[in-house]
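User: structure tokens for this one?
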Amino acid sequence: MKKILLFFAFVSCTAFAQITINASDVANMFAVGNTATIHEDTLQSNIDIGSPGGGNNWDFTNLQTNLMVTLESINPATSPYINNFPTANICNYSSSTIGGNFSEIWTYSKLNGQFDVLGNAAESSALPGFVTSINYDPYRRQYEHPLTINSQWSHSYTQIISINGTPFNSSNVSISTIVDAYGSMTIPGGATYEALRIREELTISGITSVNYSFLSKNGAQVNVNAVSSNPPNSGTIAVDGTTYYDGLTTSVEQINNLPNNYTLKQNYPNPFNPTTNIQYSIPEASFVELKVYDVLGNEVATLVNQEQAAGVYRADFSGSDLASGLYIARITAGNYNNSIKMSLLK
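Assistant:
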């Protein structure tokens, strides 16, 4: 079973030490309006997972993108299947078109100190009129908080697959998880993060699989699925699936309509610590790309990467895990290009 995690990535930092991920960090990751891009590398056959303990330097810059999906954190109360997951306080929506078929998935979770996934519901144009859902009874514990080196837990649940509300398959699942390493993690594009390594051993219907996750405090991550059910715990291992999450788009709000010109205003506040907002306007429907770079030209966050209607917008940006210094926000919209300098002072 592939492990799909729903975390998002903000920015990078330059000192690599032991970190602790708290429930409050996860709440920030899943703020309504946040989006993230998941990249899947289906061709990668080997990954260097480092070794237990500290001092690791995980280099994932060679990962490719064979499949890309965008996730959006939405208000669970406004989602179509909240009645199936009434205790959920997090909902992530994704859509994709594969082989000409359009699919939508709503994943429901509960954050109440610990982070538990409750299940998901999916629709596909390949099966019109059918809703496939997966329920984890009572839940699938994704993380126990605080999440730090040597954290570990075991958990069991029943996985129930249903079509239009009628169960047709159920399986008993057990998970054993340990946080056994930390260090620096570099993902495609050059962004580098402090990260924890999480080893998960999952057994479903008697079949065991092992997954490794490399997770930053702000949610940037790489997930690998080992080929072997008993892989070595250090060095290079054979894998049959790898995903990584790059920049998080923080909340983007349309605050006005029909401007006359393209503009990119100076962020406010500036200097900032650790959050600021960036306002821009587009006079006509345009594909907008708004990114943040460090002074070396490394991309540290993608704030907007989508088609937007004419209007005035505000994008929030957090530098909570960045080092103090100068950063550059750059926008491309239609034929318009502009950039501003932003100062992070801690």
